[in-house]
Amino acid sequence: MSPRVTDAPSVTVRVPAKINLELIVGPRRPDGYHELSTVFHAVSLFDDVRVTPAADWGVTVEGPFSHLVPTGDDNLAVRAAQLIAASAALTETGTAPGTSPAGPVHVTIRKHIPVAGGMAGGSADAAATLIACDALWGAATDRDTLDDLAQRLGSDVNFALQGGTAIGSGRGERVVPALTRGRYHWVLAMSDIGLSTPDVFHMCDRLRRDRAVPPPQPSPAMMAALRSGDAMALGAALRNDLQSAAMHLHPGVYDTLETGMECGALGGVLSGSGPTVAFLVRDAEQALDLAVALTASGVASDVRRCTGPVHGAHVLPETRV
Ligand code: C5P
Asked: 20 to 30 Å CA-CA from 125: which of 29, 44, 136, 263?
């Protein structure tokens, strides 16, 4: 990407997409969320989020998926900026009233993560905005406060701050790093049919309404695979309890999984609530082969290669020239 020339002070944060290597869905809670045990994995598909002081709050979205992102007050990145502004203004000391630097910003999102694809793109942008505003204002918000703000914005925002490979519990917002080894190659098969996360969870409840749902726990097979760094074992351990529900709502998910496995992937799994499907492959060479095969088969609207794990939201070095 070419460096941006601008006179306004601004901060740009790069944030990764996530896939779920394991997503075990427990019972629906009284608050409507489901208790989860998940393994988040940050992959090298990024959004870049820039914040610039402005007269009013606003957001512009650029890039291939820009037309799909809401740009009103309901945009999660703008909500993130307003939330951390309120927090920074509250905690400021030594600043005269009304002179807090935590004023309105314009958020510009360079979007590469698919929208409504199950890769937490909106949550990633919210996490990036928290980090960008914090840096812009020199607020030095502590980690606990950032985590608190993140969980108020959505279940996947905490992980986007952290990145790597991590175990998520609660509704997904409680995140601890997983013991892992190795770097993995992935091929992502995307669909231009977005799936609504609440709809997929609702369908999951319907499909298992006659069954008792146990409390979710990380599976020993997944934990052992991550510890060993063995891609074959990881491929066999991939699991997502939302997969059947997503297939009911969008049968293309089934075709995509079948095609990828027939073409030799070590494993394939729905990411989050879908419809993106992530395939694990041996190496960069097999990733290219599988990407070509999936593209030729026509099952996916777009196919990307990436690796994981990668770091969570981080400030990019100054790009002004
Ligand atoms: O937290 P977030 O806004 O990302 O969640 C979107 C929706 O997904 C929730 O409103 C809920 O319907 C569903 N969800 C759930 N259980 C979770 C996470 C999300 O039912 N653990």
From this structure: 29
